[in-house]
């Protein structure tokens, strides 16, 4: 009987080992993690009174999306959001969006963040929507300070006249700069959902010339940004990951101070404290009135040039498209930017990331919801969920 029990036990152990081995063989291979960050334009909100001067109907810039045929009868642009004209400052709506984003491989939102006339602007989508969503821990977020001037572009009643009257300036002096930084450190950087690289909160600055001009020159800006980094350290972080929004590699720093000579870009960016680079839109550095695949070749050349000229980490950027005729009635238009070709662009970005293994695997996308610039991941009546599915194929369904 003893030998029978031992024999049976040995069979059980053998079967268990075989099943375990089989399970290990069938266990999916672990995939590399990528931080896929989509810019989020927070103008599609219904509870922000500061939006009313531009969009009086009370649905934010959805007004520009939905009334284009009234303003330009027969216009070719006739997109419709499959989710409807949602209020993204509603936490229930944002919860749905977080599920959709995370389920398709987008795990970071870069909120366009504004400050005009001494106070924040378009902040409700972040505060009332994202940060109150019950599933907010599924994603991270960080801020891109969109410190550009506001002209008539947002107001479609005036945009058609192509007048660049400045409504609000994005420039701030040192005192206001310090107010902004202290507020963001305390209100946002300390949140567990805030995106950090090596423990450092990431903060992007969109319009560097505007910042420099407001602060009074290059040297005062170097001083101000150094102060910002030190304040971030005082708050308990190892430092600040200051991200520069590139508008193409052919920029220079001449003319900001009394010295009119051209200064080495890489050196000056380091002096300013920038520790990473990315783009916001292809339209900033390529001819977007072209076929998408041709544009990608130019983008690839831009990335190679950045690698040669800068030793600050560059995080590859992919734009979905460009067509801002909903605002103005006419526009340069990216052609052939199908979901299939967008998928090719994402694979190009992933290859670039894999070729730079020492840096964080971050990729930026324009955008989650830039409807009036026709560069959005959200589903519509033209491509359905095609762009979101492309992200999922490249970053979640990896072979």
Automatic annotation (TrEMBL):
Record's keyword annotation contains Transferase: no
Keywords: Signal
First and last residue of the signal peptide: 1-23
One Pfam family recorded for the sequence: Glyco_tran_WbsX
Recorded superkingdom: Bacteria
Name of the featured protein: Glycoside hydrolase family 99-like domain-containing protein
